[in-house]
């Protein structure tokens, strides 16, 4: 029983982080209808930035978050402005397949760039904080797990509020629903796209820092979590913020509870099998609403 | 015209004599790998390029090819030359199984679904310890100089085999582009519904293209197993392999005859110059290349719309 | 003899009845105009007859076989083809290659398909544009190509969906002449067209659809004076 409870908690804790990894992707997907295949690589970048902030600058892992977020926001803005925008603009009428191809290239490029910059070794954050635990009876909660859970839920909540109650958030939603109509209302869709992409990456900054506390980084870590983020986005329903968190929690739970009954890697196969089934039978996602 | 007619035999002769120009076996091994990538990109081109179905799961077929021939050789002593064909058949079947549900999906969904299918296969192999060696992989039993068993100590042997593969893949692509089959595939890429209105059974042709592409990719997998003499799930089923195959084809120009070869040649040049991680420089080109290409595609679509 | 027949065909979209128990037939060697105000459901009828949409109820028969719900390629092979209102050329391919996709239906061999396609292009006055990419054609050129593509499949019945919309008067007369010559060759034609002048000039008979229902099926002159038709076109109720 204890082990099931522990697995439940572990699953929720990592699932929450998966959820906010997927959040940025879902936002980009929902607003711009673009598929950013480099998402996992940007996560890897965020993790390395966190690692360097703790090891080179000596920052506490949590204190590194604002810094990483700021850098990723700028990286996101620049990537959209100077890399994706020129590709996107040419093909805005249909599904932008060239952006998909382009970001696939970016994916491989970033992975290899960081292989050169950081080497192939696994890295964990400096400092002892990540090793701290709360003990409650037989259950063990590590600091990073608790922080991950709390911060992830907080970030999701903030994003929901932002999208609902701020001018900018509403502009983003309007653009996502109908670009033409939004531009009639005087919304500059290019600016909205830059902001959306930047916000997507900024959230990844939070996720990267939290993830580094429970998972070591290497240049190809993005493959694992990036692909998983796509699965979560599809499971949760494209463009749905709450759906991303729910999808993340679901994947986290499948992973940790699955590991109780199945060989560890099979739970990964299970996730992908569920993903394929959802893609086939319910392409709008488990929590998404069917659109005409 | 005369010049063009000369180009092909000259190119072929050049390729046949190329190894003489290399003093060290290292250079030759880089060339062999580049040619293998060219072959894989040419195979991918049938479905990803000409038919426009962006598969990011071709490692599945590569892995099936590598494992089938290796297991048949290890357990039954079957020569990998025949195991290669068995792998191709199996991969073809896998392409049908993966393709039937996935072809309902368009664009990014198709890409994601194929990627997921490959990952599932990888996980299955990682978990089947007795037969397939699990996550650690399998060694191919060393026979040294046994060309009948697809093995040789000389790299030249592999060079000529892969050269033959590339030639075959080029011929397949050329035939495809110039036949009804290829015309139909191109039409499907442009507008599947419009093609259906002209009597083109899009699903059937997409499946045929996928099967052909998968079978060819599997043969590449067997070649790799015999060349490296070691395979593991990560190496032959990995996501990176799938993506690399697609990216090489796209850099060179997808849907064209010489594009995939060009993409692999670029890779070769970069690796030769910037060993060990020249891939970065290559992908610098990849980015500008895909922008150029996508620009073109966008123009086509805009004007078509 | 009836070549194409709609029998009580109904199509619902959600709660909306786009087509409501429509029945009519198109006889061999006949040219029938299918008209009606915007949103009447003409294109929906085409989509059902050509296999792109299954009827919610009712049957569609072509040349003695029931075809509703059959896949589009099969219906095309039976000799029933349609053009698209919003033209759909294969943009990256040349004009000739576009038409070859049609002519490949009867030729496996590339050279034969090519010769056939060239003959079609010559007839359509487009031979000199054969090598140019389809996306570079003018609208009139693309409309013409849309027809050329399906003619290359050698259809028995041709469903034309507004092939004259957006054309100038001269271009329109050219395409009317072309359709006449196709009819003289024995191709049966079902024509959706907004332009009344063209419909009256070409059709042996017109079928009028309004709000998804058939309200008239008669010779052009008769239909033009039918009170229900006049009512439908001149208003009375807004859409």
UniProtKB/TrEMBL annotation, chain A:
Q: Which GO terms describe its molecular function?
A: transmembrane transporter activity
What are the alphabetically sorted keywords of the record? Amino-acid transport, Cell membrane, Membrane, Transmembrane, Transmembrane helix, Transport
- Which superkingdom heads the taxonomic lineage of this protein's source? Bacteria
The record's principal subcellular location, in a coarse class, is membrane
What is one GO cellular-component annotation here?
Answer: plasma membrane
* Membrane topology category: Multi-pass membrane protein
- InterPro entries attached to this UniProt entry: ABC_transp_permease, BCAA_transport_permease
Q: Which GO terms describe its biological process?
A: amino acid transport
Name-wise, this protein is Amino acid/amide ABC transporter membrane protein 1, HAAT family
Q: Where in the cell is it found?
A: Cell membrane
Q: Which organism is it from?
A: Tistlia consotensis USBA 355
Q: Where are the transmembrane segments?
A: 6-27, 34-51, 57-76, 97-120, 140-163, 197-217, 229-254, 261-281
Q: Which family does it belong to?
A: Belongs to the binding-protein-dependent transport system permease family. LivHM subfamily.
From TrEMBL, chain B:
Annotated Gene Ontology cellular components are: plasma membrane
TM region(s), chain numbering: 27-47, 54-74, 80-100, 107-125, 157-177, 207-225, 245-271
* Primary residence: membrane
Keywords of the record, alphabetical order, are: Cell membrane, Membrane, Transmembrane, Transmembrane helix
Q: Which cellular compartments is it found in?
A: Cell membrane
The answer on whether this UniProt entry bears the keyword Ribonucleoprotein reads: no
The membrane-topology field of this record reads:
Multi-pass membrane protein
Gene Ontology molecular functions: branched-chain amino acid transmembrane transporter activity
PANTHER family listed in its UniProt record: HIGH-AFFINITY BRANCHED-CHAIN AMINO ACID TRANSPORT PROTEIN BRAE, HIGH-AFFINITY BRANCHED-CHAIN AMINO ACID TRANSPORT SYSTEM PERMEASE
Name of the protein in its database record: Amino acid/amide ABC transporter membrane protein 2, HAAT family
Automatic annotation (TrEMBL), chain C:
Going by the UniProt record, its keywords in alphabetical order are: ATP-binding, Nucleotide-binding, Transport
Coiled coil stretches, renumbered: none
Residues covered by the ABC transporter domain: 4-236
Domain of life, per lineage = Bacteria
> Gene Ontology terms, cellular component aspect?
plasma membrane
Q: Do you know which Pfam families this protein is assigned to?
A: ABC_tran (PF00005), BCA_ABC_TP_C (PF12399)
Which InterPro entries does its entry note?
AAA+_ATPase (IPR003593), ABC_AA/LPS_Transport (IPR051120), ABC_transporter-like_ATP-bd (IPR003439), BCA_ABC_TP_C (IPR032823), P-loop_NTPase (IPR027417)
* GO MF, one example: L-isoleucine transmembrane transporter activity
Q: In Gene Ontology terms, what is a biological process of this protein?
A: L-isoleucine import across plasma membrane
**SMART domains the record matches:** AAA
The record ties this protein, via CDD domains, to:
ABC_Mj1267_LivG_branched (cd03219)
Name the record gives this protein: Amino acid/amide ABC transporter ATP-binding protein 1, HAAT family
Species name: Tistlia consotensis USBA 355
């Amino acid at each position: 029983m204890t082990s099931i409870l522990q697995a439940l908690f572990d699953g929720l804790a990592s699932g929450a982080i998966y959820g906010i990894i997927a959040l940025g992707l879902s936002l980009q997907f929902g607003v711009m209808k673009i598929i950013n295949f480099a998402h996992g690589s940007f996560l890897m970048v965020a993790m390395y930035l966190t690692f360097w902030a703790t090891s080179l600058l000596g920052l506490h892992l949590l204190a590194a978050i604002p810094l990483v977020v700021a850098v990723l926001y700028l990286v996101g803005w620049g990537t959209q402005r100077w890399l994706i925008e020129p590709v996107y603009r040419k093909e805005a009428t249909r599904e932008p397949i060239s952006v998909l191809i382009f970001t696939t290239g970016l994916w491989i490029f970033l992975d290899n760039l960081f292989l050169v910059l950081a080497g192939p070794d696994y890295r964990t954050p400096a400092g002892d904080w990540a090793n701290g635990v709360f003990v409650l009876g037989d259950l063990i909660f590590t600091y990073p797990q608790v922080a991950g859970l709390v911060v992830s839920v907080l970030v999701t909540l903030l994003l929901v509020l932002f999208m609902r109650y701020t001018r900018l958030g509403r502009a983003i939603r309007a653009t996502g629903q109908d670009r033409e109509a939004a531009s009639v209302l005087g919304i500059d869709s290019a600016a909205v796209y830059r902001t959306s992409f930047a916000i997507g990456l900024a959230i990844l900054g939070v996720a990267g820092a939290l993830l580094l506390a429970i998972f070591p980084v290497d240049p190809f870590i993005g493959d694992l979590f990036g692909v998983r983020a796509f699965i979560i986005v599809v499971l949760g329903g494209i463009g749905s913020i709450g759906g991303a968190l729910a999808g993340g929690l679901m994947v986290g739970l499948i992973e940790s509870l699955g590991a109780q009954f199945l060989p560890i890697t099979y739970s990964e196969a299970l996730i992908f099998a569920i993903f394929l089934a959802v893609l086939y039978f319910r392409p709008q996602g488990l929590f998404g609403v069917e659109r005409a | 015209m005369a010049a063009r007619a000369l180009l092909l035999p000259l190119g072929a002769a050049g390729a046949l004599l190329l190894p003489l120009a290399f003093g060290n076996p290292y250079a030759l091994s880089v060339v062999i790998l580049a040619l293998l990538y060219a072959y894989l990109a040419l195979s991918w081109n049938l479905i990803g390029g000409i038919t426009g179905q962006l598969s990011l799961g071709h490692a599945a077929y590569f892995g099936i090819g590598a494992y089938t021939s290796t297991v048949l050789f290890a357990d039954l002593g079957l020569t990998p030359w025949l195991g290669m064909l068995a792998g191709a058949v199996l991969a073809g079947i896998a392409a049908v199984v993966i393709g039937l549900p996935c072809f309902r999906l368009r664009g990014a969904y198709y890409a994601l679904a194929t990627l997921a299918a490959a990952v599932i296969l990888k996980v299955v192999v990682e978990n089947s310890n007795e037969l397939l060696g699990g996550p650690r992989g399998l060694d191919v039993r060393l026979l040294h100089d046994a060309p009948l068993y697809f093995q040789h100590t000389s790299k030249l042997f592999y060079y000529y085999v892969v050269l033959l593969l590339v030639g075959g893949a080029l011929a397949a692509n050329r035939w495809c582009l110039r036949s009804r089959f290829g015309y139909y595939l191109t039409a499907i890429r442009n507008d599947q519904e419009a093609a259906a209105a002209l009597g083109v059974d899009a699903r059937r042709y997409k499946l045929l293209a996928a099967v052909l592409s998968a079978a060819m990719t599997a043969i590449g997998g067997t070649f790799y197993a015999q060349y490296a003499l070691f395979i593991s799930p990560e190496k032959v089923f990995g996501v990176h392999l799938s993506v690399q195959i697609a990216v090489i084809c796209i850099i060179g120009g997808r849907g064209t005859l010489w594009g995939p070869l060009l993409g692999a040649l670029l890779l070769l040049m970069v690796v030769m110059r910037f060993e060990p991680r020249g891939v970065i420089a290559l992908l610098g080109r990849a980015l500008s290349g895909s922008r150029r290409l996508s620009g073109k595609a966008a123009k086509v679509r805009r004007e078509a719309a | 003899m009836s070549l194409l027949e709609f029998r009580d065909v109904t199509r619902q979209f959600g709660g909306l009845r786009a087509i409501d128990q429509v029945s009519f037939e198109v006889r061999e060697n006949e040219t029938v105009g299918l008209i009606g105000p915007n949103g009447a459901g003409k294109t929906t009828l085409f989509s059902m007859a050509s296999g792109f949409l299954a009827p919610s109820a009712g049957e569609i028969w072509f040349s003695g076989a029931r075809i509703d719900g059959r896949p589009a390629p099969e219906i095309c092979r039976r000799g029933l083809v349609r053009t698209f209102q919003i033209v759909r050329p294969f943009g990256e391919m040349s004009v000739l290659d576009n038409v070859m996709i049609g002519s490949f239906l009867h030729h496996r061999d590339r050279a034969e398909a090519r010769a056939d396609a060239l003959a079609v292009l010559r007839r359509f006055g487009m031979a000199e544009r054969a090598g140019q990419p389809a996306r570079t054609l003018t609208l009139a050129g693309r409309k013409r190509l849309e027809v050329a593509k399906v003619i290359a499949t050698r259809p028995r019945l041709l469903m034309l969906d507004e092939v004259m919309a957006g054309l100038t008067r001269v271009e329109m007369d050219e395409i009317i002449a072309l359709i006449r010559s196709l009819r003289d060759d024995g191709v049966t034609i079902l024509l959706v067209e907004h332009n009344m002048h063209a419909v009256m000039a070409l059709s042996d008979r017109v079928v009028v659809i309004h709000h998804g229902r058939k309200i008239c099926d008669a010779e052009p002159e008769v239909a033009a004076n039918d009170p229900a038709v006049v009512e439908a076109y001149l208003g009375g109720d807004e859409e």
